[in-house]
Design brief:
binds uridine-diphosphate-N-acetylglucosamine; 371 residues; six-stranded parallel sheet; Rossmann fold; alpha/beta; 15 helices; binds uridine-5'-diphosphate
Length: 371
């Protein structure tokens, strides 16, 4: 391709995709070889907008799809139909999607139907269990199976693709989440004063939002937290509640009125990074936080039985504890009571990249199009 810009459409829709794609939008926009089109499905609304504001990204197309308590069927059909129109109008040379959400799965399928080249950012993650996480594991398989370029965060992700028979288009780039995290930590100073944390208590940060944890597992997580604040007077728990009503309706009745437990609204990304840095331990079922916390040297206990991100477990900064109440209490207690155990976890390395993933992805695309 000579003298022609590579028309690249980046499609994303939820908070974590925006955090991991906005640095790439900015990077490609600075390069004259690219014509960048930003398309947001707005599978999330408020949680997406707060990230767009932070990175000062103004989408070219905002499909505005989020509905209260949306279901997978309607959201999927709407993404398929509305991206079809934009793709057919813009005719990009390449579309880039991220990760494993419904936005990623259905936008990639839509681009495949439109015979557009596809690049998958955060490719190759797998649990090899179609039910955990649901439906994300299958979204990953769909996206990778139609992709021409697969940007893998780690060796393990590359191996997953190679072992499944993929021959070409696999690259290791690190995860763009580290680019986002470093950018925010270095450039966006924020204050957490308004949360009014007690500085003499150890902060335990909790997030949980996964579909497979809805109902009993999430209840059990909440009961573990209740037991922990009764057992330890020197801890406080902060839980920024995801806006999904399935989370809020379970958590509030159990933890709504418990001493030293703070249920707060989702934080903007910059204050959230600040809060992660100040935390003693993080309990989470989030994918992104499993990647960020090791880079900040904060021990993470993952509230799931399986993870597609085993690298940080191998390095020692992350441990899988599931959702059983007693197991959560036991593992948090171990970190609170045993200094050696705590230091072992907080001294582990970050396996997810050097903060230059966007630069590597840019170079791979230029080579692919012979620019
Ligand atoms: C989605 C992704 C999940 C990802 C998570 C990140 C799918 C199937 N799930 O799950 O992989 O880990 O995002 O957070 O793609 N809501 C709002 N405002 C917002 C965001 C959500 O009100 O800004 C509420 C709405 O009622 C919405 C509901 O949350 O219908 C669920 O949103 P949805 O994107 O379907 O599922 P998540 O649980 O957010
Ligand atoms: N995050 C945030 N504010 C919050 C909670 C999380 O900005 O109140 C960030 C977090 O740092 C990470 C991303 O949101 O980068 C993770 O999103 P989420 O847990 O919703 O999705 P997942 O990563 O599990 O897909």
């Amino acid at each position: 391709m000579t003298n022609k810009k590579i028309k690249t459409a980046l499609v994303f829709g939820t908070r974590p995709e925006a955090i991991k794609m906005c640095p790439l939008v900015k990077r490609l926009k600075e390069n004259n070889n690219f014509e960048v089109v930003t398309i947001v499905t707005a599978q999330h609304r408020q949680m997406l907008d707060s990230v767009l504001d932070l990175f000062e990204v103004v989408p070219d197309y905002d499909l505005n799809l989020m509905k209260p308590n949306q279901d997978l069927w309607n959201l999927s059909s709407e993404i398929l139909l509305s991206t079809k129109e934009v793709f057919n109008k813009e005719k990009p040379d390449l579309i880039l999607v991220h990760g494993d959400t419904t936005t990623a799965g259905l936008s990639a399928l839509s681009a495949f139907y439109s015979r557009i080249k596809i690049g998958h950012v955060e490719a190759g993650l797998r649990t090899f269990n179609k039910d955990y996480p649901f439906p994300e594991e299958i979204n990953r398989v769909i996206v990778d199976s139609v992709s021409d370029l697969m940007f893998c965060p780690t060796d393990r992700a590359m191996e997953n693709l190679e072992n499944s028979g993929v021959k070409n288009g696999i690259y290791k780039t690190g995860n763009t989440v580290i680019d986002a995290l470093l950018y925010v930590v270095e450039n966006k100073k924020t204050s957490l004063d308004y949360i009014n944390l007690n500085p003499s208590l150890k902060t335990i940060l909790l997030t949980s939002h996964r579909r497979e944890n809805f109902g009993k597992p999430l209840e059990s997580i909440c009961f573990a937290i209740k037991e922990l604040v009764e057992k330890y007077e020197d801890i406080q728990v902060v839980y920024p509640l995801h806006l999904n009503p399935n989370v809020r309706n379970t958590v509030r009745p159990i933890l709504g009125n418990i001493k030293r437990v703070r249920l707060i609204e989702p934080l903007d990304y910059a204050p959230f990074c600040n809060l992660m840095k100040q935390s003693h331990i993080i309990l989470t079922d989030s994918g992104g936080i499993q990647e960020e916390a090791p880079a900040l040297k904060i021990p993470v206990l993952v509230l799931r039985d399986e993870t597609e991100r085993p690298e940080a477990i191998k390095y020692g900064g992350v441990k899988l504890v599931g959702t059983n109440k007693d197991n959560i209490v036991k593992n948090v207690s171990l970190l609170l009571d045993n200094k050696e155990e705590y230091e072992k976890m907080s001294k582990s390395k970050n396996p997810y990249g050097d903060g230059r993933a966007c630069e590597y992805i840019e170079k791979i695309i230029l080579d692919y199009f012979n620019v």
